[in-house]
């Protein structure tokens, strides 16, 4: 029996008290066999190397997703911390708090246990970014600060804590200000969104299946001191967990707390949150080491199977790497290789892939992002391979030229042409089938990809402006862009002239003028206008008087062209 006032020694149980049972497998062992061995040994973790291991539950998921024949090392966590088996519990928790998913315990050169971050309760230290949030200087930043404080107060009134999350927090730590705000609510996110929409005067669009909503058109009121400041788009989600029934499928979601919501995300730099409640405003919550990765400019995926779960995350990785200058760590690159090798993804719709292509094409450094996708082999997800970097560079150059001279060019179409140009029609068709493109968008790309003969025609050494017009006018705009990508310097100059100037050239005389000059009604009016246009293109007609003389000559000569 314990005696009052008696001091007793405290026993620290050590990291081993937290450890799950492990079984060791050869790195090349197939996933299905590794799973059978783990289950036979009642092991929670399979060790495949000195710093490599995988949970038994992850092996089971990999088998369900068609990866049972892959080597177990391909789906293992890599670069895991390893401690002596006699290490303290505090040391193991410290590694988990730094972002490690598993901590391996080693004795006499062997891994004898693993501490699992998903099963150990952790209390994360919090820092504050309030000073960053309050670093205003323009109406946009001041309006944003008012929005965040208002969101926190509304959440407190509803009994539902609210957090800024994802790209907003990442960009804040990188010294920028995201154009939109992502909020997570521990509670009913849709009810919160409707209340916030009332407060800011925005339009609320609800996506009930995922417990999310978006608010657009909101403005800060006069009482906030920033009357009328636009607040951008606000995306609101209920905190949730996700389960993927199949590789590439949309997830099934269920309510959860903030910790699970952050853990389900894609990259550590997107798995941070900032508390907005009045009593904790500005507290940074970083359970997975995102702040450390921001400082290192590192893009680190949160799970080895993250890209198999959702291959569109590969496109997101390319966008972040290009736009933010982040580099992928080794395990993230390995996870992408695994996901690409696992294709095809039957549950991944062509519409979702096309949307990701549009997002990449809309990036400020779209060429760099597409180069990453090509280097990683991710374009094979929609049937493309062996893309020349020179074509992507050409697409970037053409896009910049078009913007500078005011020629409208769809960046998605332009970069898709760079990916498709010169490929056999059957290969183009398979790609467009995978992307589920139909109608006019498909027709433009099909025609544009086959523009090799047009590019060769425009390379002819002596070609009048009217001949250039004759070659390009019947062709769809995508064919002109594709011919530019495939053509040499002469063809490119001619296409640029045509797009910027030539196609807009029209005769000064109208159809009515021609009738007055004696051109009979009917098709001869159109032929006369076409003649005048050709002569203007070639510099043989300038004024109205010159055009009238050309028409008179045309009528008396009997020529119809």
Taken as a percent bin, the fraction of beta residues is 5-15%
State the CATH class of the largest domain. Answer: Alpha Beta
Q: What ranges have pLDDT less than 50 throughout 5 or more consecutive residues?
A: none
Structural class estimated from helices and strands: alpha+beta
Largest β sheet strand count, sense and barrel closure:
8 strands, mixed
Largest sheet strand order? 8-17-16-9-10-13-12-11
* Second-tier CATH architecture of the largest domain: 2-Layer Sandwich
Gyration radius from CA atoms, angstroms? 31 Å
Report the helical percentage: 40-55%
Please count the helical segments. 25
- Ends: how far apart? 116 Å
Total beta strands: 19
> What is the approximate shape?
elongated
CATH topology of the largest domain: Beta Polymerase, domain 2
What would you give as the CATH superfamily of the largest domain?
Answer: Beta Polymerase, domain 2
